[in-house]
Structure formats: structure tokens, C-alpha cells
Amino acid sequence: MDGKAAPNGVATIEDRILRITGYYGYYPGYSSQKSASRSSVIQCKPGGNCPSRHRGMTRQLSPLSVAEDSAAPILELQNRSPSGICRHSRVERQSRSEEGTQTHTESSSQEAEGQTRCQSCTSTFLKLVWRFLIILSVSSSWVGTTQFVKITYETFDCPFFMTWFSTNWNIMVFPIYYSGHLATAQEKQSPIKKFRECSRIFGEDGLTLKIFLKRTAPFSILWTLTNYLYLLALKKLTATDVSALFCCNKAFVFLLSWIVLKDRFMGARIVAAIMAITGIVMMAYADGFQGDSIIGVAYAVGSASTSALYKVLFKMFLGSANFGEAAHFVSTLGFFNLIFISVTPIILYFTKVEYWSPFSAVPWGYLCGVAGLWLAFNILVNVGVVLTYPILISIGTVLSVPGNAAVDLLKHKMIFSVVRLGATIIICIGFLLMLLPEEWDEITLRFINSLKEKKSEDHADDITDSSIHTRSRSRANGTVSIPLA
Predict the structure, then answer these.
(1) Are 432 and 253 in contact (CB under 8 A)?
(2) Residue 62 has pLDDT above 90, yes or no
């Protein structure tokens, strides 16, 4: 391609073309310098050290170095140079390091997500265990109290003294609560300050003598009547029957709240109340409406009624209370019982209604067992309402019925009649209906609609999958046209 220099100084045909087209990187002798540059680049292998004479020759043949750096051929040489190869390798290493970092980040995020799921599963499991223990403790304490009373009656037939003695133990509820406060609270308060803080349940002025007599007296009387009638019922009936009849207090609470507090009317709870009354009638009819059975049923129903009245009046006058306020109130009832009701067992003793001749014949061990289990039940009820759901306490109470039935069947060899068994089951079902929330109908409709939507989505997915499968089979079984040669 090279030829002799033309008169106008253009050495080769390439120089002439570049001169005619007006290439911006052209100058006379461009093609000769380009060939020299190519020869210098070819002689310098990638990764090796180029001789200095080639660098000097390149500098001599390129007086316009700035224009050469901006031209396309020089850019091409730079991309093919060892530095370009090194830049390319650096970019590859950087991209690989970024991919490794991203993979490490994804793996660490997956590990953190797995740890979070594991922790959430552990916390859920611990909550379920805690709730199960609360239910079991409430049921066991109530079954133990009932059975200890039945055992105590074998040697000591003084129900009011047992009621008075057990109620005095309520004084310890607030000290037990304050001990828990000292053990768990970060900001600890003095006993007097905590006592005044919990006294707000009686009003802004706290606990005064007037309020103590006005508010505590009726609740203390109802408390004593509830426990005393319950113990009298245990003298006439089995522990299973009495515990089942006492579960009717939930229906009585609803009826009184509907009449007195104007609570919302619920058809399901009316049905539950009717079932409770039906169970009471069946329980009374079990022995033909005569003898000790009808008296025992009357005592048990009276105990459930006074308990319901206590709860409704508490809600009306005192409202809702936290654990500290409830502990304060129960301890106040214990003080009132000790101060004002202590005269009653003395009167019953000297009138020989409840009389025991030698003082040493009193079974203090059984009495302390009854009082301790009753105290544990009251504490668990108040603590469980604060720490868990109130429905769990109610479930624990109704589970005392099968618990007492198991003890009566295994230890006392009781034989349950069909009528009594049916009455017990009806009362328990009515009690469980009382546990339904107020919006149970809306919740049920939402649940049914969600099930319908899920079924329709699954049906649509099945139809889609079947159509796709049908199309794939038709394609696999279809004919293929092969063009003839």
C-alpha cells in the first residue's frame, strides 16, 4: 500500500483519503507514524517491559500527542495495552467481590431470619406453657380446696368456723403482692406509698374509716355467705355436684348485669342461662326432690347467686381494678372479717351450734390446708386475670368439675346416676357458652367467609392447573409436520 511521496507531501493513498475526507486527527505523515506505532505495540508483549527505544520512537513520531490521545486508533491501542487488560481484570475481581459480599449478606440475613423465627416459636411455646400452668393451677387449687373440706368434715363439722378461719388468711394477699413488687419492679416503693397508691380503688381520698365500713361491709358479708353456703352444700352433696352447680354463677352474673348494669343482650348467653337452670332442676330431681339432695342444691345455688351478686356490685361501685388494687381490697376484706365477724363463731360456739369439746381435737392441719388452697385460688384468680386472659381462669374453674369427678370416682368409689351426669354436662356446656365474646357472631361470619374465599381460590388454582396439564398433554400428543425433501 505504501508508495512514493506525492508532490503535495501526501505519502500514501491512506494519507490522501484522510486529507480529502478531512479527518480531524490527520496530519502529513500520519500513516507512516501509525505503522510505526503498530510495529512498536506489536513488539511490546502484554505484561512485558517495552524497550525504551520504542518509547522514544513513539514520542518522536507523535508531535501532536494530545490529538493522538483523542483519536480512535490511539484509543484502540490503549484498550489493547497491558494497562487495559489490568483494568479489565480489576473490574472482574471487583464484580466477583461484590457478588461474594451480596451472597454473604443474603446468607447472614437468612440466618438472622431463621433465628428470629426460632425465637418467636420459643416465646409462643413458653406462653402456651405458662397459660396451661395457670389453668392447671386454678383447677387444682379449687379441686384441692373442695376435697380438703370433705376430708375435714369427717372429724370437724364446723363450716362457719372454717369459713371465718380461711377468710382471715386473705390478709396476706397484699403482703404477697408487695413482695412480688420488690422482687420484680425496677423502681421500688415503700410499703406505705404502695398501700396509698392501691387505696385509690376506694376513691380519691383513699381508705378512710367511713369508706372502710361503707364499702367493705357489704362485700365482706357477701364473701362470707358465698363460702359458707358452699361449705354447707358440700355436707349434703358430692364435690362433683357442688362444683358443677357453682359454675352457674356465670349465668347469674350475666342475668344480673343485663338487668342492673344494662349490658348487651346476647342470645347465646340466654341459652346458656336456660341450660344452667335446666341443669339445676335435673340435679335437684336426681333424688326425687326430697331429702338432703334438694337442700344441698339450694345451698349450692345460693352460693353461686351470692358470688354473682358480689361480682356485679364490685363492677358497679368499684369498677375494674389492677392486681395491686385487687390485692389491697381482698386484704381489707380479711381485716374486716377478723375485726367484725370474729364474734359470730364465738356466739355459735357458746350456743353449741358449732361446738367442739377439746380444743386439741381441732384438725388444724386440715384447716390450714383448706385456708392455704383457698388463698392460692384467690391469688391465682387475681394474678391470672392480669397476666393472662380472664377466659383462662374461667376454663380452670370449669375444669374443676371433671377433676372432682375423677377424685370421687377413684377415691370415694362414687357411682354417678345418668340424671346427675346429664345435669353436670348441661351446666358445663352452658358455662362454656358464657365464655363466648360479645362479637362472636361477627367473628364466626368472618371465619366462614374466609373459608369460602380460600376454597374458591383453591378451586380456581385446581382448574388452572388442570387446564395447563390438558394443554401440555395435547401438545405432546399432537402431530408434527415434517417437510418433504
Answers:
(1) no
(2) no
